[in-house]
Design goal:
With about 300 residues, the protein is α/β, with parallel strands linked by helices. Helix content is about 40%, strand content about 25%. The protein has 3 domains: about 5-80, Winged helix-like DNA-binding domain superfamily/Winged helix DNA-binding domain (Arc Repressor Mutant, subunit A), CATH 1.10.10.10; about 90-160 and about 260-295, 3-Layer(aba) Sandwich (D-Maltodextrin-Binding Protein, domain 2), CATH 3.40.190.10; about 160-260, D-Maltodextrin-Binding Protein, domain 2 (3-Layer(aba) Sandwich). It has 10 helices and 11 strands. The strands form 2 sheets. Strands 3, 4, 5, 6, 7, 8, 9, 10 and 11 form a 9-stranded mixed β-sheet that branches. Strands 1-2 form a two-stranded antiparallel ribbon. Helix 1 (about 5-15) crosses helix 4 (about 60-80) and helix 2 packs across helix 3 (about 30-45). The longest helix has 24 residues, at about 275-295. It is elongated. The model is unreliable at about 80-90 (pLDDT under 50).
């Protein structure tokens, strides 16, 4: 008996995530239900596809063989979708976008809302996680990153540069010693990333400033910004985030000014997909315009 595409789609998720819980999150499917589906698939094929253990689901030789066939079927399905023309009345369907939480919180909501206004049949999902997304495992249809990957079958497009500066709340600055030089930061409480949870070297801002201790640390940009807003301390902030937090000011702008970039990353197999290509164009244009608009207000 041959497996149908829906069976293979679920199998691919479990094979790539090595667990029912991880695959269930991607598929929005209960792990118990997913486990029953995998058991049914094994019964139908009369094969043992997974070696199950407390550490997860590892592929057997039969599972590895099915994985090759399933990925071939996946490529065929994506190619079939890619051959369908984009409807003249707009984009439709569901697209999941992965992004670091700074971009996801302060840029993507308004950009995606504008795209949604023009495409009412399009369902957009933003996955905001402080880590690198794995498009090969289909965690998202496209992802935004702060550095360009150099490995994998990926298409990488630079979206735009953005700027960051040291920032603090006006209440914090009024209550503390004046900050005139970078060296003065040693006398102040610093807000930043948890050092061992920095997932991209482009985000390791504070080490370049000689800051070795971070009393208030989080892996989330939004938490850091809120700490700064509440007068918790001084930290590096995206210029585009500052209009959302009145009372937070840039400081030492003549001494500290950082520039980073956002990149749009897509799987190479999606290059021929007109729906995703049209969305990528709209997303890139929208993000570029929004960064310019917000940085002018900072």
């Amino acid at each position: 008996m041959e497996a149908n595409w829906d069976d293979l789609r679920l199998f691919l998720a479990v094979a790539r995530e090595h667990s029912l819980s991880g695959a269930g999150k991607l598929l929005r499917l209960d792990p118990a239900t997913l486990g029953r589906r995998m058991q049914r698939l094994e019964t139908a094929l009369q094969l043992t596809l997974f070696a199950k253990s407390p550490q997860g689901y590892a592929l057997t030789d039969a599972g590895q063989s099915l994985l090759v066939r399933a990925e071939k079927a996946e490529r065929a399905m994506r190619a079939a979708v890619a051959d369908q023309p984009v409807a003249s009345d707009g984009l439709s369907g569901q697209v999941r976008i992965g992004a670091p939480d700074g971009c996801a919180n302060y840029l993507l909501p308004q950009v995606c809302a504008a795209i949604s206004d023009q495409n009412p049949d399009l369902d957009l999902q933003i996955v905001a996680l402080p880590r690198v997304f794995n498009l090969s495992r289909r965690e998202a249809d496209m992802a935004i990153a702060v550095s360009a990957p150099t490995a994998g079958r990926l298409v990488v497009q630079k979206i735009t540069d953005y700027r960051l500066h040291l920032a603090a709340s006006d209440a914090y600055l009024a209550a503390r010693e004046h900050i005139a030089r970078v060296q003065d930061l040693r006398q102040h409480r610093v807000v930043g990333y948890i050092p061992d949870m920095i997932f991209d070297q482009e985000l390791d801002y504070l080490s370049d400033l000689g800051v070795n201790r971070v009393p208030l640390a989080s892996n989330s940009v939004s938490v850091q910004i809120n700490w700064i807003r509440q007068g918790g301390g001084v930290g590096i902030a995206h210029d585009f985030s500052l209009p959302a937090v009145p009372g937070v000011l840039r400081i030492l702008t003549d001494q500290i000014s950082l520039t980073r970039a956002f990149y749009l990353i897509r799987h190479a197999d999606d290059q021929r997909n007109p729906r995703l290509s049209h969305l990528a164009q709209a997303l890139t244009a929208g993000l570029r315009a929004e960064v310019v608009r917000l940085e002018a207000l900072a």
